[in-house]
Specification:
17% of the residues lie in helices and 29% in strands. The chain has 569 residues and is α/β, with parallel strands linked by helices.
Length: 569
């Protein structure tokens, strides 16, 4: 039984059949390699849970000792554990993407071709004599992102998906945050998986694996275009039931995809869940697996588990600084209908700061007269400014950069849950300007409140936003007052020292700022605290430039917060 008292599939004592390196034919004749794990139950048929990725189906994952699922020889990174699912009457199918692991061909990670291949693998699996014909997709990160591209194509046998922490817009969510190239993670990811294939065991059986021009193509296509749309979710085409699962700590890659899915996917049956913790502990927790099982039991087996009777939104509400999980709360919509949208104006009532200081405050009313704060855009490192050395983009500044604003101490516990936006007037001596926004939770004694990051690290910030000023053009049809949507299809260059208004999308969050705490806003020309490993390329237009923030008067700049009043029961 589930925690709500509704029935779910119970484990049965039968043997698990393991079929290794099964060849699945694609429409062009390519044969992809897959591993199948299924119940040995005679003539009985079972639904299948599938995934496809470049992460190698044969690469054993040895989880940390505090994972709620025990290590076993069938564990694989970011995928379902067959020893838990097969006894409950599900088959698990893992497919090596084209040109990776044991699958031949030229690799093209996170691509349209991979979506087509996934479609073919889904329909092949549905026709196996042991399969009921119902397919579900489940997995974290890459294994979540690939679900969107398969769902775009509407395979007839695909009955439900659970994209667990899954970026959906390859341009906005992963490659270009606000138009700024997210080199840190994607560069390391590409190099690491190239090494996993060419310097690891796959070299012995697939020496040409993971051969692609992914990074070149990502940098060559630095504006949004059909190239990126082919790699991304197409919300009007996603009609399959979606359980979209995000993580408040995923504010630099995945979370936006999960909230955008709930808002925009064409499916009539959508749920949104957002939790905290690492990238993998919640997925393998008993509570997390029960949500997965209840969803698939309902859509793949026709069992009324009660999950569709619950409100569609399930959120962990962070109260700050806990290394453990927070309690969940059900809601009926996203953003929350009772949100009190609150403008906090940037007021520059202080002198320019020293290394530990602040330049201004966040207040309910703007300054009457316009003021201007200027700072260096260069971000000097030990390698100098605009050095040809690769270290110039990866090693930190010699001091603090940008400007910071802070609220007065909270008069009471104040919940902020939902999307955020910064309206800011800026100018630069250069033709362009990078705006990096960090929201922080500051204790009465001035310390940062840290949350658990997706890699288990302490993260001293609440959420982030980014925008390259030349990408400030909005798509009015898709923009919302609290979530600007930038077109990213042309560049509006800056004129020297001419102020322009920029609407910066700040990724959604949930945080209760405790009484006496302050909310701090950093605006910087490069990555601020809590960014690693999701750092960015700092281009040459920053070198030697002076950036300015304008506030007050006719150029009032403000932070828009989703303040949530206590629910009236």
């Amino acid at each position: 039984m589930s925690s709500q008292g509704a029935p779910v599939s119970q484990p049965r004592d039968h043997r698990m059949i393991v079929e290794k390196d099964v060849r699945i034919p694609m429409r062009d004749g390519t044969l992809l390699s897959a591993d199948l794990f299924r119940p040995d139950a005679g003539e009985e048929r079972f639904p299948a849970i599938m995934n496809i990725s470049v992460y190698q189906k044969d690469k054993l994952w040895v989880p940390p000792p505090d994972l709620e699922e025990e290590a076993n020889p069938y564990m694989n990174w970011e995928t379902a554990n067959p020893l838990w699912w097969v006894p409950r009457g599900y088959a698990c199918v893992r497919v090596d993407s084209r040109g990776t692991g044991k699958s031949p061909g030229r690799s093209e990670p996170s691509s349209y071709q991979e979506g087509v291949d996934f479609y073919d693998a889904i329909e092949w699996t549905a026709k196996r004599p042991w399969c009921s014909g119902s397919i579900g997709l489940l997995g974290i990160s890459y294994h979540a992102s690939s679900q969107w591209r398969a769902a775009n194509l509407q395979p007839p046998s695909l009955k439900a998906i659970i994209p667990w922490e899954g970026r959906a817009d390859q341009y906005r969510d992963q490659a270009y945050h606000g138009g700024i190239f997210a080199l840190g993670f994607i560069g390391n990811w590409w190099l690491t998986h190239t090494a996993h294939h060419l310097l690891g065991r796959p070299r012995s059986y697939n020496p040409d694996a993971f051969q692609n021009d992914m990074l070149w193509n990502y940098m060559r296509n630095d504006l949004d275009s059909e190239y990126w749309r082919m790699h991304s979710a197409r919300w009007d085409r996603i009609t399959v039931p979606v359980y979209s699962v995000g993580n408040w700590g995923g504010f630099s890659m995945h979370l936006r995809g999960n909230t955008e899915a709930f808002l925009n996917a064409a499916s009539r049956h959508k749920k949104l869940r957002i939790h905290t913790g690492t990238h993998f502990h919640p997925f393998h927790s008993e509570e997390g697996r029960m949500d997965q099982l209840r969803w698939f039991d309902y859509w793949l087996k026709g069992i009324d588990t009660g999950i569709m009777d619950e409100p569609p939104v399930k959120l962990e509400i962070r109260t700050g600084g806990s290394p453990e999980r927070y309690p969940f709360r059900f809601e009926h919509e996203w953003p929350l209908a009772r949100t009190r949208w609150t403008k906090l104006h940037l007021r520059t009532d202080r002198r320019p700061a020293d290394v530990l200081g602040l330049e201004g405050e966040l207040a309910e009313t703007p300054d009457c007269a316009e003021t201007r704060l200027s700072y260096s855009a260069s971000g000097t490192t030990a390698a100098g400014v605009a050095s040809g050395s690769s270290l110039a983009t990866t090693h930190g500044n010699t001091g603090r950069t940008g400007v910071s604003f802070v609220t007065a101490p909270m008069a009471e516990d104040t919940e902020v849950t939902g999307p955020l936006m910064l309206k800011v007037w800026v100018s630069s001596t250069s033709e362009d300007m990078d705006i990096f926004v960090t929201i922080r939770n500051i204790t009465p004694d001035g310390a940062d409140v840290c949350e658990v990051g997706q890699h288990g690290q302490p993260v001293p910030c609440v959420t982030k936003g980014w925008l390259r000023a030349s990408h400030r053009k909005l798509d009015p049809a898709r923009s919302l007052p609290y979530r600007p949507y930038h077109a990213h299809d042309e560049r509006w260059w800056l004129n020297p020292d001419e102020p322009v208004a920029c609407d910066v999308e700040i990724w959604p969050t949930s945080m209760v700022f405790r009484k006496g705490h302050r909310l701090r806003l950093d605006i910087q020309p490069r990555d601020g605290v809590g960014s690693a490993p999701y750092t960015h390329y700092h281009a040459d237009y920053n070198a030697g430039a002076q950036n300015s923030i304008h506030t007050g008067g006719d150029r009032a700049s403000y932070l828009l917060l989703p303040v949530i009043p206590p629910r009236a029961w």
